[in-house]
Amino acid sequence: MIAVADGVGAWAQKERGHAALWSRLILHFWSLALEDIGDVEAGITKSINDDKNQVLSPFTANLQTAYSQTVAATAPPTEIFGTTTASGAALIAEPSTSQLTLHVTQLGDSVVLVLRPSKPVNEALLYKTEEQWHWFDCPRQLGTNSPDTPAENAVTERVSVQEGDIIVAISDGVSDNLWIHEVVENVYNSVIKHNSVLGNSESSRGAEAMQEVANELVRAARVIAEDPFAESPFMERAVEEGLPTEGGKLDDISVVVGMVRRT
């Protein structure tokens, strides 16, 4: 599994606010829940509210479990306030067909991409999640005073993948500063540059190469974020909302990159 949870930074200004802790707890409990995923074909019926049952994908259900555990862990007497987005992808080999399937769960405005480097760069993007917002610069989020829950608002989709495909999870610190085609080109070119290592399943340097692929994307996003005169997706959306904005957006920048391989 790879995932990004982007805590809402405004909580740092609030007493007992700690969005980073909310982000870490959500992913901690989500990863633990996914270790016991069970039958991914069957779905899970969970009683989310007293007055109704909902049939959820196991991945959405496990995010709901992680959310509930985080709420409990941050309740009084601890009482830590915060909110976070959550986007993740889990790779499953379907037992009946041996097909590799990526189960992608999305809540908020982080982004998960699937790239196939064996295709030309303009055809390499196989899949992209759709961001979720309440309104401009206010994503769906899990936590204090938010109406959003995984059971009601998370979206889980299946993507067929093959060995060598690249999975990228990014926070909006990337997608607010680089257009998606720039993200794709950056990752694609980095993977090609490190292909001698990444193409060798016996190499012990694969993890190092993937780390460098992620680092190169972080550096590209940071250049725009720190440029007060750059054109950026955030600037473009702000102008569409009638807000006078110029340059990149300073924000947390998180990138997780993985390559599909059988073990």
Kindly list the characteristics that best describe this protein.
four-stranded antiparallel beta sheet; alpha+beta; 8 helices; globular; 33% helix; 14 strands; single chain
Provide an overview of this structure.
With 263 residues, the chain is an alpha+beta fold. 33% of the residues lie in helices and 25% in strands. The protein contains eight helices and 14 strands. A four-stranded antiparallel sheet has the order 1-5-6-12, covered by helices on one side. Strands 8-7-13-14 form a four-stranded antiparallel sheet. The chain has a two-stranded antiparallel sheet with strand order 2-3. The longest helix is centred in the last third of the chain and has 20 residues. The radius of gyration is 19 Å and the shape is globular. The chain starts with a strand and ends with a strand.
Spatial strand order of the main sheet: 1-5-6-12
Order of helices and strands: EHEEHEEEEEEEEHEEHHHHHE
How far apart the termini lie comes to 14 Å
Unreliable stretches: 41-52
Q: What class, by secondary structure content?
A: alpha+beta
Number of helices: 8
Basic shape: globular
Please give the largest β-sheet.
4 strands, antiparallel
Helix content: 25-40%
Give the rounded overall mean pLDDT: 90
C-alpha-based Rg, rounded: 19 Å
Number of strands: 14
List strands and helices in order, with pairings.
Elements: E1 2-4, H1 19-34, E2 44-49, E3 52-56, H2 58-73, E4 83-84, E5 86-93, E6 100-107, E7 111-115, E8 125-128, E9 133-135, E10 138-139, E11 142-143, H3 150-153, E12 155-161, E13 166-170, H4 172-175, H5 180-193, H6 195-198, H7 206-225, H8 233-240, E14 255-259
Helix pairs in contact: 1-2, 5-7
